[in-house]
Amino acid sequence: MATQKAQVRLDEIGFKAAIGAFLGVAIALAVGRTYIRIILTHRITVDDGFFFLAVITLIAGTTTLYVDVPYLFIQQNVDPSTTVITPAFIQFLLRSLKIQSATDVLLSVTLFSVKYSFLFFFHGLLRRVRWLTIWWWCVLAMMVPLSIIFMCCIFMVCPYFDERVL
After folding, report:
1. Of 25, 23, 52, which is closest to residue 37 (Cα–Cα)?
2. Contact present, 64 and 103 (Cβ < 8 Å)
3. What is the pLDDT, as a whole number, of residue 14?
4. Which stretch of 10-24, 51-65, 86-100 has the lowest confidence by average pLDDT?
């Protein structure tokens, strides 16, 4: 006997509340970490710079996601067999695509900034062991091109922001 899966739908307000709650937790932890680094240890290092970049791009990416939430929910509820595609609806979809692309790039920068922050944080700990230092350089050599490709892949896959994308 086949069982049906329960479909759970989150409305716009619930989605925004969840994203806002996670952003709030991230900002609280970032403030705590910054307090410890600046006030208690009195020093800022390279990993802190990447961390600050990650926090800034996380806030910007979440803000663009908040702007795009109405577009996302309308796109999810479109039935191609019954929806009439008008020029206004095409412009609506194109605007949503632009916002989604900006969000993707900002959150990609956030992701890789956190990775670089951890990488440079552990560099100081691994300096004394030669084979770990070599491994660190190998990871850095892989991450630089990977991060560039990952942040730009949205534009490589779909470079158009007009009717050609549809």
Report:
1. 52
2. yes
3. 85
4. 86-100
